[in-house]
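Chapter review: from sequence to fold.
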Amino acid sequence: METVSTQLKPTEKQRKQDREKSYVKQTLSLSSSVTKVRKYKVPGVRHVFHISLGKSARPWGSDSRGNLVQTDLQGNQLQKIQTSESEGYHTVTQDGDLIYTDRKNKVINRITPDNTITEFIKTGNWEPLSIHSSHINGDILVGMRKDNEGKVTRYNKTGTEIQNIQRNNKGQTLYSRPHYITKNINGDVCVSDLNKQAVVVVDKSGHHRFSYTGQGSEFYMYPYGIGTDVLGHILVCESIRETVHLLDQDGQFLSLLLTPQQGVKYPYSVCVDDDNNLWVGQSITNKVTVYKYLQ
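The token string follows.
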């Protein structure tokens, strides 16, 4: 059953951010080509299954074995945490803290500025898989799974549950394995669901907007990392075919932004930074490549 969160009036800070984003949106457009900005390795991980960024420009990268490492922009290790295995399981909050899911213990942990790890949210009988913190209002979105069924739960920045999204208006389950999650500029919740072989998008009220299943009737989508940008584009990794798909905010396919012809090898994770650069992590190495695709 879908529950709808109460919409709060925007603060002056949010209104200012909205005005700034509106200005950026008017001045930015897709570039005719994708340019490589930098490449670095994340020490202490076997591959880069997920990337999360804060305003400190100190990215976090993780692999499938629970190694979670923070580096500087040159790839020098700043800190390392051993966590339980998962995929899109960490995010940097509006306040700059790192929070991450612990599937085994069914909790979400927070790392405070003094590097103390504290238990932040308990998820009951549900395994938390993926997590995303909005830098606009601080809301936290968590993709969860129990008995082969998935859901998305929204919490406010203090960890209070305010919304559950599980079924569409016909009572059908929306998710099976929501292993990567993000939020778009229009408030849409965008989920990469491996078992559904689809990107599943709902609006801020939890109503299903669309599902993207790839290109062509014979195309089986195996979606992994997912991100959005200031123009509302949805970027999703299709690692099997080594591509990054670019969609508009209504789910229309725009292009294969990155392909093997551009030297991309098994992209698994994506993230867009405050300078509108695209960060891409790989599943077969511990390399991260940063691209510029907007002008």
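Two observations follow directly from the output. The domain at 27-294 is CATH 2.120.10.30 (Neuraminidase). The chain has one domain: 27-294.
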